[in-house]
């Protein structure tokens, strides 16, 4: 039987609800109209018919992704259907691209994260960190930030936020912080959201954006990054952004609480409840450590996806997890979304549509590599605040690789150039699930975040560009 | 005899009717009091202007009534002195004689009052179980209290039979007080869902306010189209003395708070509250009307009747001329507030603002111009579909929100 809390009655004026209810059919029809409009004008002189058809499919998908007309993964499936139907790619090839290594790496990463969560290892780590840091209001805040940032090195930032959110709710309830006006409560939820976001860009495990960008890069150019290379590029950004975020947090959200002993007590009670580390947790921890070591040492020779999937096999072989334990944690929709996005990216490149589109947009606006990089970075940041960051990567990556070719920029540069800024969302709930969770606490409103979020955004852009120009070349990634 | 159907309804409701001896054996014409406490054995009449009234008969207070009901050929007349008006009798419908699949007589389950099929599926009111029932209520002595609730299937059988003979348009579920957080929403849920699943109809529900407003959202979400929490008496002291249970178990303010919330959730004009005229000074009833109207709730006025089985059997009857201004005031206030008067109407045992227009100035009667449209088959269909559309637009499942946020 349904619960009263499972329903919400929307009391906004009925005309708004009516408009909202016709939004989806209208947008669906508009997307279709855009597709047919692009098809009806005929191919431009410098684009062959297959490229023109790929462009129409891309326009349709971009529209559906941006306006969230269909779930992201369903738009991706639509792309996979349309590519063979319109003759852009043979069906066999379109579906084969779904089997990209990046897709399987994401699948492996999801299962590993699921094992950590299901075994209780991730919650134990979180509680241990909080128990160590959470004696004073400021150290508890720092503890939440550091916890989320460091755990996002090893698990998807979304999973980290989802794991720490209920713990945080419990701590705040113990502190009796009023939701409407407490600055410390806001700071704690922001520490969770911003910590996860900033930590999530450091490694390939922090979010599925980076594997998606690498997947498209590999399909188009054959190039990729090792686990260590990616982390080496981005860990300095995470460290410097952590400092910046901490300063913004402390400046805009003053701590008005003197005593957090009740929160500390809640953490201790939780730790008491979970008791000693179980065998299952030890096994999962062992496999995780070995997996990360293998990604660092053997990543290039064995492949990241192979190592992730081998770790999954080991977890099952030693009985550390059961299938029913993990299947609920795996975001199958995201895997479908990425498969479709990689197929579309590859189709745009092979048909020449990506190059043509890049010519008409970024290439025509940019005067050289500097402006190209600035334009791509700004586009990624802007798009990710408005839509899912995966969709932002799916839209920008094919274009960016094409532009790189025209400006003699190393196409490898484009993967972190798109994927990293696309993960940096600090203001709106739609930006990342971590933001959405922080807003769902009831402590935050958009108005609280406009100025601090914008400052952090601008700081992130400046730091990121400084690293791109002065630090990345030291690692052999240069324009 | 007043030519004004509103005044006539009120006078008939207060003074009742003396039945001509020739009609005494005609049980098919009279309704047994199975709906709720303050309703007597009655006859349902359609007065000029399509105004429905449930006029009490055979009660102690009806013996001095100037009105008598008589039949000539196949026509019925209401006579008062030398004056006479033709009326129609809404006789007992045919399904009253039928039984449900479990063998329960259908007249014990649902009574038709105008276009409504009124059903009380609950076993008993917790107010009377605790000895704190309202003093004007005779539910416990009239056999409304029973050992077990009515099975959902039997209710569905009765509704089906009533619809099959075209006796009703709407279903009206009402229960007494249920001592739980939801005040009986959970109890009513299977009945509402079953009725909505089997029939294309509007469902109105009357019960006591739940402790938490979430249950009001919930009852709308499961398909209830109109809702009533009846405060009955506005004056705090009189309410306390006559309805101990309402004050002590629910709390007077809770009725108003719940009504105010319900008015935000349900369509305009579908949340109503009964006030009984004649148990408190008219100024107090007027203040009650104002309070309800101010929060967007439709007041419905019923007339106090000193039923023989109640503690108030000797309480004086209200005087028609004295209370008539209350009805005029109700209509004016509802009209000013822009509350839709077409949803809750045609109640034979109470006066709704739709009929109260007759108490106002003559031009006000125009406000009922849409009445025939609402009553028509097309109007009924439109109302049902609009109600369904509104619910689809307004009610969201929390899971849907999570899904749409791409978490």
Fold blueprint:
The complex is a heterodimer of chains A (479) and B (407).
Chain A: E1 7-9, H1 14-40, H2 49-66, H3 72-85, H4 91-96, H5 101-119, H6 121-133, H7 137-151, H8 157-175, H9 183-200, H10 209-221, H11 227-252, H12 261-274, H13 279-302, H14 304-317, H15 323-327, H16 332-351, H17 353-360, H18 362-365, H19 369-386, H20 389-406, H21 414-422, H22 433-440, H23 446-471
Helix pairs in contact in A: 1-2, 2-3, 2-16, 2-17, 3-16, 5-10, 5-13, 5-14, 5-16, 6-7, 6-8, 6-12, 7-8, 7-9, 8-9, 8-12, 8-22, 9-11, 9-22, 10-16, 10-20, 10-21, 11-23, 13-14, 16-20, 17-20, 19-20, 19-21, 20-21
Chain B: H1 5-15, E1 18-19, E2 30-31, E3 42-47, E4 51-56, E5 67-72, E6 75-80, E7 83-89, E8 110-113, E9 116-119, H2 126-129, H3 152-164, E10 170-174, H4 185-198, E11 202-206, H5 214-221, E12 226-228, H6 236-242, H7 244-250, H8 252-265, E13 271-277, H9 282-294, E14 298-303, H10 320-337, H11 353-356, H12 371-375, H13 377-394, E15 395-397, H14 398-404
Parallel strand pairs in B: 1-5, 9-10, 10-11, 11-12, 12-13, 13-14
Antiparallel strand pairs in B: 2-3, 3-4, 3-7, 5-6, 6-7, 8-9
Helix pairs in contact in B: 3-4, 6-7, 9-10
Overview of the molecule:
The complex is a heterodimer of chains A (479) and B (407). With 479 residues, chain A is mainly alpha-helical. Chain A has 23 helices and 1 strand. In chain A, α6 runs antiparallel to α7, α7 runs parallel beside α9 and α20 packs antiparallel against α21. Chain A is globular, with a radius of gyration of 23 Å. The N and C termini of chain A lie far apart (60 Å). The mean pLDDT of chain A is 87. With 407 residues, chain B is α/β, with parallel strands linked by helices. Chain B has 2 domains: 85 residues, no CATH class; 291 residues, Alpha-Beta Barrel (TIM Barrel), CATH 3.20.20.70. The longest helix of chain B has 18 residues. The chains are: A mainly alpha (479), B alpha/beta (407). At the A-B interface, β1, α1 and α22 of A face α5, α13, β15 and α14 of B.
